[in-house]
Amino acid sequence: xxxxxxxxxxxxxxxxxxxxxxxxxxxxxxxxxxxxxxxxxxxxxxxxxxxxxxxxxxxxxxxxxxxxxxxxxxxxxxxxxxxxxxxxxxxxxxxxxxxxxxxxxxxxxxxxxxxxxxxxxxxxxxxxxxxxxxxxxxxxxxxxxxxxxxxxxxxxxxxxxxxxxxxxxxxxxxxxxxxxxxxxxxxxxxxxxxxxxxxxxxxxxxxxxxxxxxxxxxxxxxxxxxxxxxxxxxxxxxxxxxxxxxxxxxxxxxxxxxxxxxxxxxxxxxxxxxxxxxxxxxxxxxxxxxxxxxxxxxxxxxxxxxxxxxxxxxxxxxxxxxxxxxxxxxxxxxxxxxxxxxxxxxxxxxxxxxxxxxxxxxxxxxxxxxxxxxxxxxxxxxxxxxxxxxxxxxxxxxxxxxxxxxxxxxxxxxxxxxxxxxxxxxxxxxxxxxxxxxxxxxxxxxxxxxxxxxxxxxxxxxxxxxxxxxxxxxxxxxxxxxxxxxxxxxxxxxxxxxxxxxxxxxxxxxxxxxxxxxxxxxxxxxxxxxxxxxxxxxxxxxxxxxxxxxxxxxxxxxxxxxxxxxxxxxxxxxxxxxxxxxxxxxxxxxxxxxxxxxxxxxxxxxxxxxxxxxxxxxxxxxxxxxxxxxxxxxxxxxxxxxxxxxxxxxxxxxxxxxxxxxxxxxxxxxxxxxxxxxxxxxxxxxxxxxxxxxxxxxxxxxxxxxxxxxxxx
Length: 713
What we know:
Layout: H1 5-9, H2 23-62, H3 67-88, H4 98-119, H5 125-140, H6 147-168, H7 173-242, H8 246-261, E1 265-272, E2 275-278, H9 289-293, E3 306-311, E4 317-324, H10 331-373, E5 378-381, E6 388-390, E7 404-409, E8 411-412, E9 416-424, E10 428-435, E11 440-447, H11 454-471, E12 479-484, E13 490-495, E14 499-501, H12 502-509, H13 514-533, E15 536-537, E16 546-551, E17 554-559, E18 566-567, H14 572-575, H15 589-592, H16 599-615, H17 626-635, H18 650-659, H19 671-683, H20 701-708
Antiparallel strand pairs: 1-2, 1-4, 3-4, 5-6, 5-7, 8-9, 9-10, 10-11, 11-13, 12-13, 14-16, 15-18, 16-17
């Protein structure tokens, strides 16, 4: 039988008892009905035989004079016939005669009841009448006769009983009319029951057929998807070799997608230097970067096409897939296409990183060659401990590791001698160095030369140095010098601090006590307020940029890294040249939206840092991608401090709520006033559970380096 989903949805399935229009469907239903009825029918026949046998035992007691005749009917006629019929139910021909044989059984049983009523004791007419009613109900229920057969049998038995009573004349007119009324009622009830049973069986049959059809269709779909997944796996296994011939591999991927979703066309685009580059042939136009970034889920557009962004593990955009008019676009197909997109995005990211690594290696080799030609002594570096040695050394004298050559001089400007690598990023490194002229330790941040971003990066480094010098506050790390190396690399000489970053303190020891956080806020708040008074907006306040140094009072917090600071009066291309600045989890919502940010943005970030220091958990939890983190900043309401620390008063929750408002206009205008009030309230808080950072702050050289290297990225 074919039952479409449309017929089910529109209610066009049969609700009655008539035969199906399709003969094959009707035969299938009759077979299904037989299989579901055979066991109940055998049970019913067995029960009928048992009842006739039971009453044959009772006949000598209730009708001793008529017992011989009654026994003859019960034992000699009815029970043998029903027994033969019961045995026939195991015959392979029984299905063919299922309904006629059941009709015959009911006719035999009903006629026997009428006959025994005629020949039996007149005083038992009421009992015989009840037996007739039971026979009618039996016909419409346990016999499993379909509606037409059941009606014919019950009406025949009813007419036979009424005719017999009229012929005998045993009942008065009132009694006969009363019996006729009850027989008619029993027939009506039986008709309703048999009609409902058959209609229910037919409806259930249709629904099961439709379910089977859907299950088979789903299985076929899953088989296709499994086959597609197998082909995807084969493509993935060939991917490392195919990356060298990306268009060919992309065409294979597009072919698999087109086959899976039954699309008219699938085109794959790669973003190269900001411009779309077609990896496969086709007629569909290239999507714009704005169109791809606006896609939140793989849904059809107004023209029936689907746009799928290709992103790497970092969330960076590398291309897009355009699927034209896909026919099969269910959840399973979307999952498979999403898997294609993830793998293809990863492959494009690998190619991009390969290209970047090749440029970096070429840049380093060129710088090293020029320095050697100029007669500059180069450094070698221990990969284990980070110590710096002269070019002639081969192994570290501390741990014995083989030294790696670096394209940097061992001594800068005949004054600063590199001592140890503290940290490094994609664009530069931070070293501990010795100022031989003033006999002091300094930190030197070096930006590598030979980069396409040289001019901007060097200008940004000078911008950072001038911003810090402009503030001149003891809570801000001091800058001593600014210059260029012989190969063109820029460097900045800064105060070297010993201690530990706030992020490391929280990672090691958890949350600080309310009094410690109050002290932290006062110190960082004063430094930040001093920056704001001089027209400097930090724009990247985070625990990694708050450094705790040893102090007799416990610790002294210093504010670091003004590399993306916005300085009043500075050239716009230095302050706002590359879009949103900051670290996603600590950026204010307006920074995420692309606005440059102001003092209120710094207040938001400072409140996020204070929340983390007080609670021991980030305000914005880390997400799998940068895009997801930014979306969380924009869309999720920040939790209250008291949800983590039940002993925190409501007024502190309110102060955090104001500072962390999505609307900068609703935040306090002054960092200093907000910090002073919050610190005062925190000083008065007593929590039941002890917490706090162990003092004094210990010296963490290696971590200090990774901190100062943060802007080298």
